[in-house]
Design a protein that fits this description.
The chain is mainly alpha-helical. It is built from 11 helices and no strands. It has a domain of 172 residues: Orthogonal Bundle (MetI-like fold), CATH 1.10.3720.10.
């Protein structure tokens, strides 16, 4: 009984430590005062000022554009790569799976610096294109890892049956294989979008002047003093990411049920 109570207390304190600061941030985003130490009344003032700030709106546009494009392209490449890995010999599959896990296990700062070095070596001007390429690169492994479990669950004779009935390999993929692995593809796409939306470290190293994402914009705003607009922006980001993660978790549960 005591052990159970201690476990409950530990879990409660842990989640309070994690989420209480975020809860306070959301509460103070509605505070009329610029200072966090005093409550001056409820207001939507900072949300209005947030969307009147053109630099923040531009960063919001860049963030969602990059996230959507990166998720779409990474999903296509990752799905094709997952199918290729699934059909490889056991030794080749082990090798490419280890290669796939490396970017997932590497710290973001290592990925960011290595991509920056690559772009400089290729003499690419840092900006929207390099930022998009960086996001596609670190998203692909997550899509592969989301699609592969569905391929393993797939009946191996389905494609053979489709080919025997006269379908071309391309028709067999789009009409037989793809509908069966679609939950994994959607999960990979949502995961890629969420990771791209939330990324800071890789974006910081691979973006150029004039191209900001929300995470970089928030970082630059903190250098000039913490504005209540940051509270409002952070609150919106948190709610948006939580919503996407909820959809992602629902898709994952559906896959493994």
């Amino acid at each position: 009984m005591v052990k159970k109570a201690l476990k409950g207390t530990y879990i409660t304190l842990m989640y309070l430590f994690l989420y209480l600061p975020i809860f306070l941030l959301i509460v103070y985003s509605f505070n009329d005062s610029r200072y966090r130490g005093s409550w001056s009344g409820f207001t939507f003032r900072w949300y209005r000022e947030l969307f009147q700030d053109r630099t923040i709106v531009a960063a919001l546009y860049n963030t969602f554009t990059i996230a959507l494009l990166a998720a779409l392209i990474a999903t296509v490449i990752g799905t094709v790569s997952a199918v290729a890995i699934h059909n490889m010999s056991p030794k080749a599959k082990v090798f490419f799976m280890n290669v796939t896990y490396l970017p997932v296990l590497n710290p973001d700062i290592v990925i960011g610096i290595s991509l920056l070095a690559l772009f400089v070596w290729m003499q690419l001007k840092l900006g929207f294109i390099t930022l998009l390429l960086a996001h596609i690169t670190f998203n692909i492994p997550y899509v592969i890892l989301a699609v592969l479990p569905k391929l393993k669950q797939l009946n191996p004779h389905l494609e053979e049956a489709a080919l025997d009935l006269g379908a071309t390999p391309l028709q067999a993929f789009f009409k037989v294989i793809l509908p069966e692995i679609m939950p994994g593809v959607i999960t990979g796409a949502l995961l890629a979008f969420t990771l791209s939306l939330d990324d800071f470290m890789v974006s910081f190293f691979t973006t150029g002047s004039g191209i900001n994402t929300l995470s970089i914009k928030i970082y630059s705003m903190t250098k000039l003093g913490v504005s209540p607009k940051i509270n409002a922006l952070s609150a919106l980001l948190f709610i948006g990411v939580i919503g996407l993660l909820g959809v992602l978790q629902a898709r994952i549960r559906k896959i493994y049920d």
